[in-house]
Structures are given as C-alpha cells and as structure tokens.
Amino acid sequence: TKKESRNGYRFFSNQMQIQTTRHLQLVNALRQAIALKQLTVHYQPQLDLHTKKLVGVEALLRWSHPQLGEVQPTEFIPLAESSGLIISIGSWVLEQAVQQIERWQEAGITNICVSVNLSSIQFRDPELPSLVQAILQRYHVLPQSLELELTEGVALENPEGAVSMMDALDQLGVRLSIDDFGTGYSSLSYLKKFKVYKLKVDQSFVRDISTDDEDKAIVIAIINLARSLGLKTIAEGVETPEQKAFLLTHGCDEIQGYLLSQPMASEEATAYLLANQ
Ligand code: C2E
Ligand code: CA
Ligand code: CA
Ligand code: CA
C-alpha cells in the first residue's frame, strides 16, 4: 500500500542519513587524526617457507579515536580516499614505515623488508617517486628494504600512466607487489609490462584451501603463473598449519597471517623480530 511504501522510503532515507552523518563525522575526525596522534602503524610478520626465516612485515594502519574507538581501516581508508586525505595519511604511513626500518637496522634487525599499502590515489600522484626517494634518504634506508603493495585496480583507468609510474618506482629500487591478486579485473598481460616483484595471493583463496578443490586449483595456478614469470608469491590470511603445509608443498615462497602473528604495534613487533631472527 501507499502507507507502507512511504514508511519504507522514510526508513531508507533515515538509514542513509545515519550513514552520511557517520561519514561526515569520521572524515572530520580523520582530518585531525595525525596531529592528535591517533594513528599508529602496526606490523605483521612474513615468513619465507624455503629458509624458514622472517623476511618482512606488512605495515597496517590503525586508528584509535577517544570517542569512536577503534575504527577499522576497511571503513576509514575508503573515506580517506574519497576526501583526498589519503595523500597526507599515506605519506605519513610511508614515513613511519621507513623510520621503523632505520630503527630496526640500528637494533641489529637487518634483512627485514617493510611493505606499505598504496592507495591507487597515491599511485596516480606524480609526486610519489620523489616523495619515496626523499623519505628513504632522510632515514638512510636502502630502497630494497621497502616494498609497495598495489592492487590490480591501479592499471584500470590509465594503463600507460601505471606503466610509467611503475618504471619510476622500479628505478628507485623499491619492490612492487600486487595485493589481493586474483580478485581484480585486470588482464594478465599487465604482469608482462609491469615491474612487479611479488604476487600476494588473496586471503579469500587461502581460507578454504584445505577443503575446497576450486580454491586449491586457483592457488596452485597463481603459484605456477608467478613462477613461470619469475615472480615471487606470498599467501595472506594463513591461519592453520594445514594451510601452511599445502602452500609449502605447492611451492609458495612466503606466508603471512594469524598463524604467525596478528599485526603488532612497533615495540611488540621489535620483540617478535628479535626473538625469531
Ligand atoms: P590488506 O592489505 O589485504 O591487509 C590484510 C588484512 O588482513 C589486514 O586487515 C590484516 O589485519 C588482516 N589479516 C592478516 N592476517 C589475517 C588472517 O590470518 N586472517 C584474517 N581473517 N585476516 C588477517 P586490516 O589491518 O583490517 O586492513 C584492512 C585493509 O585496509 C587492508 O587490506 C588494506 O587494503 C587497507 N589498509 C590498511 N592499512 C593501510 C594503509 O596504510 N594504506 C592503505 N592505502 N590501505 C591500508
Ligand atoms: Ca596489503
Ligand atoms: Ca591483501
Ligand atoms: Ca567452491
């Protein structure tokens, strides 16, 4: 009836208003989050399955707000992107990560590569290569200690621009990896043109690897594709010994996930790296 649809409409529009209010609230709070020291970078270890040694960590952003609590990156990163704040937040994360590499090297933790997630908005910023170079120089860190994680989406809008950005970053000597590999839309031909070092097998394929034949087949295919192109593979979201054993058997190079550790704050990550060298 007419009455029901009116109520239905009003309900929907109230929901939208609640959403919009929260978005506005979050964007306003995010604008000040760096200055108010509410952001931190956590680090999740990555293990080389061949040498059994820790080889890297992924830097993951955390936001703790006094009233809003812990806001998840899956909620605030898209808002940072749509508001443009991702440029300043992203360069802050890069600087934290590179400074952390320097501190670890001073503490005798060498051979740990830190990978930083790059938004496609940062990737389209022509200032990115000079920013990365300036930060590496500021902290006296060699470029091969830094890895940048991109998603397949970066090449979607402007493939030529993506190729020249990858070339510029590659020339600096930083490593590039493709995050969430297999979940995007791009064609495989870009792997040939792009200066990619590593593929990150998405955790959605890893989750049911012990039971689901299709997921098994997909993961094996990605590992073999990478190997034949001379790329490394890392599986993310590894939670069980069974998943680890499967990945080892099929020649995956590295793993990352709760089986090793949750992402840790700087001090805890330092202790973990020292204890597991
Ligand atoms: P991502 O890059 O795919 O990061 C992996 C996510 O999986 C992280 O979630 C991590 O905490 C979680 N994870 C790690 N191991 C396991 C596991 O064994 N099981 C399960 N179920 N999950 C695991 P998180 O930290 O909430 O980050 C979510 C997403 O937010 C990231 O996905 C990334 O896309 C984005 N993000 C986080 N930090 C940054 C950042 O500094 N910059 C940008 N642009 N994006 C970021
Ligand atoms: Ca990532
Ligand atoms: Ca991922
Ligand atoms: Ca299935």
From TrEMBL:
It comes from the Bacteria. Residues 23-277 form the EAL domain. The chain holds residues 474 to 750 of 750 of the full protein. This is Bifunctional diguanylate cyclase/phosphodiesterase. It comes from Methylophilus flavus.
